[in-house]
Hints:
270 residues; gluconate 5-dehydrogenase activity; oxidoreductase; Gluconate 5-dehydrogenase
Amino acid sequence: xxxxxxxxxxxxxxxxxxxxxxxxxxxxxxxxxxxxxxxxxxxxxxxxxxxxxxxxxxxxxxxxxxxxxxxxxxxxxxxxxxxxxxxxxxxxxxxxxxxxxxxxxxxxxxxxxxxxxxxxxxxxxxxxxxxxxxxxxxxxxxxxxxxxxxxxxxxxxxxxxxxxxxxxxxxxxxxxxxxxxxxxxxxxxxxxxxxxxxxxxxxxxxxxxxxxxxxxxxxxxxxxxxxxxxxxxxxxxxxxxxxxxxxxxxxxxxxxxxxxxxxxxxxxxx
Length: 270
Ligand SMILES: NC(=O)c1ccc[n+]([C@@H]2O[C@H](COP(=O)([O-])OP(=O)(O)OC[C@H]3O[C@@H](n4cnc5c(N)ncnc54)[C@H](O)[C@@H]3O)[C@@H](O)[C@H]2O)c1
Ligand SMILES: O=C(O)[C@H](O)[C@@H](O)[C@H](O)[C@H](O)CO
């Protein structure tokens, strides 16, 4: 099955997914492999979860590779190495998913430079400079690359104690608009898939405290806090030929939470 038979297929493609060893990134890696692409996942360590993702990629008949790197460092320390290692494995790699990211909760008045900087390095600078490195290579080789960032509903809606995270995800939404304008003339597409809350190793502990899962279900129109597979399928669409005219967009994958004016008066008082 090729792109000309099925616009949603990624057959014959090769992808790199940062933060691809667990959670949202692992779901993206699995979905991209299911759609037909070989996948390199980048994670902070080689652990059981990373090996499960590689096994799943290979079960789909695709090649799966792991790169270990600390992406919380300033990008100049790792970007050249990742580009070289990726091209060594897959010289025609044309799909980049800048998914890595985290949040560290802290009241704004107590936020420190180191936590802020780690958040911005992982959530913003990593994707910015990896995209620059791949784009330079693609333009030289005439490859029409496709880039998807993992944003967040927190790029548009604020949460207490999430100021650094919210700032970083707002930057991701602005970045995909800017990179779209810079790279679309070269045939390179840049978009973002922005999840609402989904269950991952990062969010699981919070969901299981203070009835957060129940609260989120009540405040989401479709009543669901899903697993991260919903993110994977959305990213496949954005990477695929089916999205060929979609540039610079942030696609919310949030069960409708971001469009719901809350609290909804009739249910509160009816
Ligand atoms: N889980 C959610 O509800 C949710 C919602 C919106 C957006 N997101 C976004 O999805 C992305 C992934 O979140 P998640 O919930 O899957 O997180 P997670 O902590 O479960 O997974 C993080 C991944 O990033 C990698 N990683 C973490 N620190 C790293 C480092 N220093 N160097 C290299 N790799 C590192 C890990 O190896 C892992 O593969 C983030 O950008 C996050 O902001 C998540
Ligand atoms: O982008 C994200 O990872 C999520 O939106 C989280 O920020 C949750 O909203 C939070 O964990 C709930 O308290």
